[in-house]
Amino acid sequence: MDTPLFGPFSGPKPGEHMLGPIQKLDVPMRRYGRDDEVDFVIVGVGSAGGVLSQRLARAGFTVVGFDAGPFWDVERDWVSDEAGSHKLYWTDQRIIGGSTPITLGENNSGKGVGGGSVHWAAFTPRLHPSDFRVYSEDGVGVDWPMSYWDLKPYYELLELEMPVSGPAYYPWGDPHGYPYGPHPVGGTGATLVKGCTKLGIRVSIGGPVAINAGSHGDRPHCIYRGFCIQGCKVGAKQSTLYSHVPDAVEHGAEIRDNCMVFRINMKDGRTTGVSYYDSQGQEREQRAKVVIVSGYAIETPRLLLNSACPGFENGLANSSGMVGKCLMVQAGNVVLGRYAEPVRMYKAPPAHALTEEFYETDPKRDFARGFAIQTVGPLPIAFSKQMIAAKGVWGWGLRRVLMDYNHWSAIALLGELLPWEDNTVTLDKDVKDQYGLPVAHVTYNMHDNDKKLSEYGRKVVEQVQWAAGAEEVVQEQRFAHLVGAARMGSDPRSSVTNSFGRTHDIPNLFVCDGSLFPTQGSANPGLTIQSLAARTADYLIWQGDNILHRGRELEGTPPVRRDLSPRGTSGRGVPRLKSKGGSDTIRSVRN
Amino acid sequence: MSRLGAFLDRLINGPSRDGGAPSIRLPEESSQGEQDIELWPVEPTTGQPLPPRQQPGYYPGYHTLGQKDFWDEATRKLVLERVHDVPAIRFFSAEEVTLMEAVVDRLLPQDDRREAYRIPIVPQIDKKLYENIIPGYRYEDMPPEQEAFRLGLQGIQAVADHLFGKSFVDLGPTEQDQVLLTLHDGKPPAGEEIWKQMAVTHFWVQILSYCCEAYYAHPYAWDEIGFGGPAYPRGYYRLLNGEPEPWEKEERRYAWAPPPSCLSDADEAVGHGDITYLPGQAGTH
Fold it and tell me: Among all residues of chain A, which has the CA nearest to that of B260?
């Protein structure tokens, strides 16, 4: 068929703010006045900020969420095109250095409402129980100030709210099942499954991934077009833009988009709100009882450092000196195999099969911790850049390799690299951004354990490719994700916040995003970030005004507020497998 | 061609290119002069030059643009603009454009394409530099993008002058490749002052990446490599075994080798393996 039956597909109706083809933002958004003091200002409406604003608004608080980028109308603003998706990424200037610099921008940095959850591939494995105790168990890194079991109820909640599709039985870490069925396998998944099966390595097929395997409320099912990282126009892949922000707006949260917060304001050792440049470039102020910084692992420390003022000369919440330190990335080496028969890896979500068989520390290896192996599905431009690095091709060699695009299958390592104090986010002395603010200078050095782990992991992935029948195997060295740089901990001398993201130094200033991670495991961080946000929200709701003053806060753990899930997500999708450790999953889905 | 003939042709070869003639297979003739023959790829066993094609690659008759009515409105508008409205040069000077064109012709050669089906690369790079559409990170040993391109061109000119005593644009294809190969290997023999201001391998990856961002964003390149192109709202159905959708084409390979004049067909690590760390730039997971 040359053309659709009823002519070319048309765009959305005028005047409608579309979130996917069906979901609309159809309630008027509340706007707070210039002089209003709101309960919460959230800086950055991404993975964490989206969940926080939803929970806090639903609990009845007044919330303003700021984002430096737009509140997307995805039918109009997004395209099913690789080059045309540049605007989804944080591309303001940043400087990178160190012995193994981290590339930023499209690699790991989002901008606009939904943030990183707009361009993530949406793999959603949980951290393992061991990830919270790497110092106790392996003598490396640092322990978390909380355990897996503290976070587990929130994993279960978010897996329903996103929702997550995956196998009924997931064998690694704390074994569990997923509420929605797994996805069909694509070309790269078939390669991974074939290679692993031959080597006797267990694989998880069709998830866990936060992509709708069936339609879910007003969000359609996946259509397997492979443009996950370019923003899901379909509305099938979870972004907080779809799953949480509409519910936040419906409950009175204001999302102030295209507004760049440049300073957290302080008075008498407490924050009073934020100063920002609005969409017209005008300097403005918003007062708040509590400020939560959710700008991710580079913009969060940058804002804390840029907010230095008398009494906080080294930046806010930085008495430990840990703001901007222990930035982490994961080893993300992409190992590409060329096959005699076509693979067509552009079809199906890039993320759809993985193994965590090598996740835990193995005393037989000469390094601590481990790695996962996951499918990826680079589109042509990303693939060409991988080949420039992996094979050194240019000219006719480049053209020749790219003509074989459909014969390649890309499988990636996701390895745990440890926190080191020399991996930093600092303010650049010389370079300013478009607002005149010092830009972030990001320094990264791999250490001995990191190098051994990534080298070992790469070789295992290569073996998987060979076992699957590849005729040629090459690799591109790469990093994935960004976490750390404002870590949580129980000791104020070596951490920035407590386990709920409350800064040790300033009672009404919180951090909530990937920067909180003390270590990172070999799981993609998105699910953990959103789960931590739900936990922080429960803490804030439980504390109420007690949080405003040091010494008045309630001691203990807040109750899990399952009643605050977005509409239509509670009680749907039943995990068939209750995990050990006293899960109350069944109760949670019936309420 | 009769209406039935046209119908069968469309059935067999797929829908026509956007606004173009139906995809009747035209005799493969060159519109270029004899002097370009040394730039053409060759048949590997006989060494016979292969004349430029409308569509190189292994998917004859496959045209992503023919599927444009199945795309969403925003994507259709963007991709058609990319094809029909080539941006005017605003960043590079006239002299720089000539040099850029010559360099890009070797970094990403298109001599196997007929003139009318070549993909504009330099105008897209120019647009990015003029509008400051940047990747969002800069190595601490690199100047801003705009300066890097200006310096890089000077550096290439300096190497050409050092090796051959001529401007890069006046060199033959093999000599031009020789100049570029010194950058690829991370060892340019001239322009020391320039390479002190920026790391040569970072510049190499930068300029090549910009070329790929323009070339592989174009529907003609998607047709060449058999990529599905925009796929919303229709999506894909045949996910396994590399099978084509009903509107895609099976691969039909043919043998070709780069022109003997070229030095760019080897797989050789950038920096000759001396640079052990060349980090990936594109987000994949």
Answer: A396
CA A191 to chain centroid: 26
Q: What CATH number did the domain enclosing A142 receive?
A: 3.50.50.60
- Amino acid letter for position A173: G
In 3-state terms chain B splits into helix, strand, coil percentages (rounded to 5) of 45, 5, 50
Within a domain: A413: yes
- Alpha carbon separation from A348 to A166, A184, A378, B64 (Å, rounded): 15, 8, 11, 18
Structure tokens at A194: 């074939």
Asked if A351 and B136 come within 8 Å (Cβ–Cβ), the reply is no
In the numeric block, which tokens belong to residue A573?
């999708």
CA distance A492 to A306: 21
Question: What is the number of alpha carbons within 13 Å of residue A237 lying toward its C-beta?
Answer: 31
- Give the C-alpha separation, A47 to A526, whole Å: 7
- Domain residue ranges in chain B: 37-273
CB A162 within 8 A of CB A125: no
The 10 Å CB-count burial string (b at 16+, else e) for A305-316 is bbbbeeebeebb
Chain A to chain B, count of Cβ pairs less than 8 Å apart? 316
The DSSP call for residue A491 is -
């068939």: which residue's tokens?
A: A576
pLDDT band at B10 (very low <50, low <70, confident <90, very high): very low
Nearest-by-CA chain B residue for A117: B285
Domain count of chain A?
Answer: 1
Is the residue at A22 inside a domain?
Answer: no
pLDDT digits (tens, 9 = 90+) for A215-273: 998 999 999 999 999 999 999 999 999 999 999 999 999 999 999 999 999 999 999 99
Whether residues A109 and B76 touch (CB distance < 8 A) is answered with no
Q: Which domain holds residue A71?
A: 36-584
Q: Tokens in use for A421?
A: 């104090």
Cβ burial of B269 (10 Å; 0-12, 13-18, 19+) is: middle
Q: Helix (H, G, I), strand (E, B), or coil: what is residue A333?
A: coil
Q: Give burial (CB, 10 Å; 0-12/13-18/19+) of A438.
A: middle
User: From the CA of B126, how many Å to the nearest CA of chain A?
Assistant: 15
ipTM of the complex: 0.94
In a domain, A5, yes or no: no
Instruction: Write out the two tokens for A562.
Output: 């399952």
A7 in a structural domain: no
From residue B137, alpha-carbon distances to A31, A548, B10 in Å are: 35, 38, 46
B231 lies within 8 A of chain A by CB: yes
Query: Which H helix or E strand runs over A290?
Result: strand A283-293
Confidence of residue A576 (pLDDT cuts 50, 70, 90): low
C-alpha A501/C-alpha A532 separation (Å) is: 9
pLDDT of residue A588: 37
Q: In whole angstroms, what is the distance from residue B99 CA to residue B160 CA?
A: 12
- Give residue B277's pLDDT band: very low, low, confident or very high (50, 70, 90): low
- Smallest Cα–Cα separation from A220: which of A235, A231, A237? A235
Closest approach of A400 to chain B, Cα-based (Å): 8
